[in-house]
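Order emerges. One example.
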Amino acid sequence: MTLKAVLFDFNGTLVNDEDIHQQLIDEILVGENLRPDPAEYRQLCLGRSDRACLKALLESRARVVNDRYLQQLIDRKSIAYQRKVQTQEKLPIYPGVEDLIYKLRLARLKMGVVSGALRGEIELVLSRTELLPHFAVIVAGDDITVSKPEPDSYLLAVERLQQLHPELGLEVKDCLAIEDTPAGIEAAQGAGMQVVGVANTYPFHMLQRLANWTVDYLIELELDRVQQIFSGELPPQTPIDC
């Protein structure tokens, strides 16, 4: 087994924008004459798509909406998110992201983004930060009908990468996922991948119980060590905190 590709979550992993998403979700709830609840947002929304988040929040308040109306809410939030991002002079990319991408490029590893965020949001941020060319595939919320923690988005990313690069002979076991939430970790592991948990959103000790490796910051990820474990040069029982 050889590490061939690294798949990144987006919100909370590459970009520090969870506070923006929570603010916009809260505004939608207020517009529906509903009261926001920060604890409930954390429970129902972190690591999940806007569709899954809004549907769960509305259902918890006994509000049932049809798919068309739900899509209107999602579109309204996405437009507001993109407007907010476009007004920011410097986007909040997490420290260490660019350094890790540089290391992955030197190692000739393919990269992708797997997220419940909409494609327009992802591409806007990555374009403005000049990171977009480094990602061979993006699987966004537009591409799937289910949200993490279901593994579908990761399986689709592997399928698309293999279509782009058939010479890789890529399988899910050859991929490493980088996630910041339990839902994301569960999705990647459900697809059959090993996972790095980065403690941007949840405490280190919580992610350490779930992920194969855990770091406080992406800059701490020891890529050489991870590659050695993938190739069998180091035993899998090597301590999982990098």
Notes: The chain has a mean pLDDT of 93. The first helix runs from residue 18 to 31.
